[in-house]
């Protein structure tokens, strides 16, 4: 596929739903309220989604109030505010890095918010209580208080902290399994959880450093606060995420493994957790055993491991794009997608072009322009051109209303394309899981759901993606008789939802597609 041409691929081993059975297939799709499949239910109480959300929110809120009160008690109000202001600075960088890594198949924001809140509140609360208790217990039982802090930092803290952070990854792995498909998902969830934990820990360290500066009277670049900020937020902002990412990689490998390999699916996350604890212990002990141990561990161990993990994450991200190019042509061959769509969906640039094109063209149409999106009559094989006859321009009184409608319709069209891309990515991921033997017994139901979502948005998204494939240079020009589309989509008499659809024009909302498939 390096030459950008559309290639025919052999039929996959996984059963494929033929597009010719569209009437039969879509008639079997459940009602709209049942389109979103939920995780496996555990007990009668958890059948209520509202109860689950309220329970999770309440637990995290209570943990947040408790940990912030403990940190404020240790640092004082002024130190807490200074620490909070400085600890916030590296957070946008960390979150942006992990969200960029997750751009190919972005996970829902609810998982991101849960992971960050768990790390910042629940994991931090468990860590501060357990570490304090363990340190006091060691000092009491060994009668050697001088070594209590060292043992606590190098033995107790890594075990407690990494276990607390890994709990968030485990919960999403168990209860949001369909949104956890591979290494990238494990890295992102683990990294965001650790970023939240590091945020709260930085408040504590920076607040205590500010208190020391007030006692000894130092300030500026020579202060303890400045040195602490440089070490934790400049030199090693990815320290905690790097440790926990090893656990996330283990869960990601387990998610990509076949269901029959139960031992492997159990041992891989456990191995990742052990490696995270070991690396965390080495990092905490680096400044204890030698005056230059910190710099040695940082240069010889941390930087190479960080580079290796970064390479693995980026390689996994590119592999997700290759998965789209490898799995989706089977659906194009069956008639569900146009031949150009797999190429466009496997290119981040083409996907952005498709969203921008849909937004621009539908906004132009809503303003009463003489140009119809993607050509006269919205025929995919024709080039854009003027509408026959004059097009009325809005009066001055309605100009603001027309502009607002144009923006809303352009935004709705771009959203439809984005959702189409998301469902197509989920379809390719589902098919890859089935090929690996990692898909669940509800594979067919999930495939039906995804195909139905694609069909509901096809009239808006498919032409935009076909245009983007050519605009991004993914297709050979001679393969397309007339830009920007290769050929019109064939009629689908069995479905008929779009055969009598209104022609695009002023006031037409492309996002208002049929709410229910015909039966």
Describe this structure in words.
With 519 residues, the protein is mainly α. Helices cover 66% and strands 0% of the residues. The chain has helices spanning 22-27, 49-87, 91-101, 109-142, 145-175, 183-216, 224-235, 239-256, 262-289, 293-327, 329-333, 341-345, 348-366, 399-436, 443-471. The longest helix has 39 residues, at 49-87. The chain is globular and about 75 Å long. The model is unreliable at 1-12, 35-43, 370-391 and 478-519 (pLDDT under 50).
What is the 3D form? globular
Q: What's the gyration radius in Å?
A: 27 Å
SSE order, one letter for each helix or strand: HHHHHHHHHHHHHHH
**Share of helix, binned:** 55-70%
In angstroms, what separates the terminal alpha carbons? 39 Å
Number of strands: 0
What's this, in brief?
The protein has helices spanning 22-27, 49-87, 91-101, 109-142, 145-175, 183-216, 224-235, 239-256, 262-289, 293-327, 329-333, 341-345, 348-366, 399-436, 443-471. The radius of gyration is 27 Å and the shape is globular.
Reconstruct the topology from this structure.
Layout (H helix, E strand, L loop, with lengths): L21 H6 L21 H39 L3 H11 L7 H34 L2 H31 L7 H34 L7 H12 L3 H18 L5 H28 L3 H35 L1 H5 L7 H5 L2 H19 L32 H38 L6 H29 L48
Helix pairs in contact: 2-4, 2-6, 3-6, 4-5, 4-6, 5-6, 5-8, 5-9, 6-7, 6-8, 8-9, 8-10, 9-10, 10-14, 13-14, 13-15, 14-15
């Amino acid at each position: 596929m390096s030459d950008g041409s559309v290639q025919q691929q052999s039929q996959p081993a996984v059963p494929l739903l033929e597009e010719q059975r569209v009437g039969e297939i879509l008639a079997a799709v459940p009602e709209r309220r049942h389109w979103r499949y939920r995780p496996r239910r555990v007990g009668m109480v958890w059948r209520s989604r509202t109860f689950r959300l309220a329970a999770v929110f309440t637990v995290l809120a209570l943990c947040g109030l408790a940990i912030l009160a403990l940190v404020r008690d240790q640092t004082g109000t002024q130190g807490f505010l200074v620490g909070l202001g400085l600890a916030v600075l590296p957070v946008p960088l960390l979150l942006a890095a992990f969200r960029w890594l997750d751009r190919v198949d972005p996970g829902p924001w609810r998982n991101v918010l849960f992971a960050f809140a768990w790390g910042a509140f629940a994991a931090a609360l468990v860590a501060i209580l357990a570490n304090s208790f363990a340190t006091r217990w060691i000092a009491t039982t060994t009668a050697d208080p001088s070594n209590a802090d060292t043992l606590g930092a190098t033995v107790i803290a890594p075990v407690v902290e990494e276990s607390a952070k890994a709990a968030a990854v485990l919960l999403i792995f168990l209860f949001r399994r369909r949104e956890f498909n591979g290494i990238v998902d494990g890295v992102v969830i683990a990294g965001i959880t650790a970023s939240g934990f590091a945020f709260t820990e930085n408040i504590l360290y920076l607040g205590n450093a500010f208190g020391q500066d007030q006692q000894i009277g130092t300030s500026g670049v020579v202060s303890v606060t400045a040195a602490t900020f440089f070490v934790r937020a400049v030199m090693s902002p990815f320290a905690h995420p790097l440790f926990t990412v090893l656990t996330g990689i283990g869960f990601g490998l387990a998610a990509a493994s076949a269901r029959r390999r139960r031992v492997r699916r159990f041992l891989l996350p456990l191995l990742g957790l052990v490696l995270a604890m070991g690396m965390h212990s080495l990092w905490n002990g680096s400044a204890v055993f030698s005056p230059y141990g910190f710099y040695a561990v940082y240069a010889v161990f941390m930087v190479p491991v960080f580079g290796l993990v970064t390479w693995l994450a980026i390689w996994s991200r590119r592999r997700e794009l290759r998965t789209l190019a490898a799995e989706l042509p089977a659906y194009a061959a069956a008639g569900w997608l146009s031949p150009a769509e797999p190429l466009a969906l496997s290119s981040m640039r083409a996907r952005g072009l498709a969203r921008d094109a849909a937004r621009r063209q539908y906004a132009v149409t809503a303003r009463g322009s003489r140009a119809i999106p993607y050509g006269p009559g919205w025929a995919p094989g024709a080039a854009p051109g003027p509408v026959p006859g004059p097009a009325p321009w809005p009066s001055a009184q309605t100009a603001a209303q027309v502009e607002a409608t144009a923006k809303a319709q352009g935004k709705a069209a771009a959203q439809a394309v984005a959702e189409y891309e998301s469902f197509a990515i989920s379809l390719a991921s589902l098919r890859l899981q089935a090929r690996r033997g990692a898909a669940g017994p509800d594979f067919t139901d999930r495939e039906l759901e995804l195909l139905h979502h694609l069909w509901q948005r096809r009239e808006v998204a498919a032409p935009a993606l076909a245009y983007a494939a050519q605009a991004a240079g993914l297709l050979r020009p001679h393969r397309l008789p007339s830009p920007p589309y290769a050929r019109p989509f064939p009629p689908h008499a069995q479905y008929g939802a779009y055969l009598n659809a209104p022609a695009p024009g002023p006031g037409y909302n492309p996002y208002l597609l049929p709410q229910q498939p015909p039966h």
